[in-house]
């Protein structure tokens, strides 16, 4: 596991999971939102976003957290592992509500109120985005695919990694 994608519905905990994975593996962590957004909630030029992403994909090791359907295929071809946090919609909406007002490492601002458009995207994610993600993953023959349907599964995975790391010391 040297090049890892962490994907899932907004609010699923991709960034939190990725940070823990980073701690246990030492792999460098990149948040797509930090490559795409400016601190004033404007986006960078699409060419600049792709250049930033390309520079990360060229590295030997990384964890990339985020969805961004326009670059999903590209990132899936470059990775060796895909981790899909495939959680129920209500759990993801709860995650979005709980992070409001908190400083986060994955976006360059503090979210202070709910964005109705973003909430609607999260509500539609299982019906609209998930099928495409599953279709992309179906064609990845030489990749390690990990799908978690509950937070407890992801926690067990991380605990195993942590235990493995501790026994290697």
How many extended strands?
Answer: 5
The unreliable regions are none
Distance between the termini: 18 Å
- Average pLDDT value? 94
Calculate Rg over CA atoms. Answer: 16 Å
Structural class: alpha/beta
The amount of beta strand, in percent, is 5-15%
Task: Profile the largest sheet.
Answer: 5 strands, parallel
- Please give the order of strands in the largest beta sheet: 2-3-1-4-5
Shape: globular
The percent range for helix content is 40-55%
Helix and strand run? EHEHHEHEHHHEH
- Number of alpha- plus pi-helical segments: 8
Written description of the protein model:
With 169 residues, this protein is α/β, with parallel strands linked by helices. Helix content is 53%, strand content 14%. The chain contains eight helices and five strands; from the N terminus they run E-H-E-H-H-E-H-E-H-H-H-E-H. It has helices at residues 14-25, 32-36, 46-57, 69-78, 89-98, 116-128, 130-138, 151-168, and strands at 3-8, 29-31, 62-65, 81-85, 144-148. It has a five-stranded parallel sheet, with helices on both faces. Helix 1 packs parallel to helix 8 (151-168). The mean pLDDT is 94.
State the gist of this model.
With 169 residues, the chain is an alpha/beta fold.
Key phrases:
single chain, five-stranded parallel beta sheet, alpha/beta, 14% strand, 53% helix, 8 helices, 169 residues
List the helices and strands and how they pair.
Elements: E1 3-8, H1 14-25, E2 29-31, H2 32-36, H3 46-57, E3 62-65, H4 69-78, E4 81-85, H5 89-98, H6 116-128, H7 130-138, E5 144-148, H8 151-168
Helix pairs in contact: 1-8, 5-6
């Amino acid at each position: 596991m040297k090049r890892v994608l962490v994907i899932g519905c907004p609010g699923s905990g991709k960034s939190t999971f990725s940070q823990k994975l980073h701690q246990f593996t030492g792999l460098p962590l990149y948040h797509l939102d930090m490559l795409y957004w400016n601190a004033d909630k404007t986006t960078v030029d699409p060419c600049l976003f792709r250049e930033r992403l390309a520079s990360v994909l060229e590295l030997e090791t990384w964890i990339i957290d985020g969805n961004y359907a326009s670059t999903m295929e590209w990132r899936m071809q470059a990775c060796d592992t895909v981790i899909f946090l495939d959680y129920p919609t209500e759990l993801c909406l709860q995650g979005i509500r709980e992070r409001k007002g908190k400083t986060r490492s994955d976006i360059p601002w503090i979210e202070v109120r709910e964005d109705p458009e973003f909430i609607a995207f999260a509500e539609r994610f299982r019906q609209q985005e998930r099928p495409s993600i599953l279709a992309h993953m179906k064609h990845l023959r030489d990749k390690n695919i990990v799908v978690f349907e509950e937070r407890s599964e992801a926690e067990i995975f991380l605990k195993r990694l942590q235990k493995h790391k501790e026994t290697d010391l």
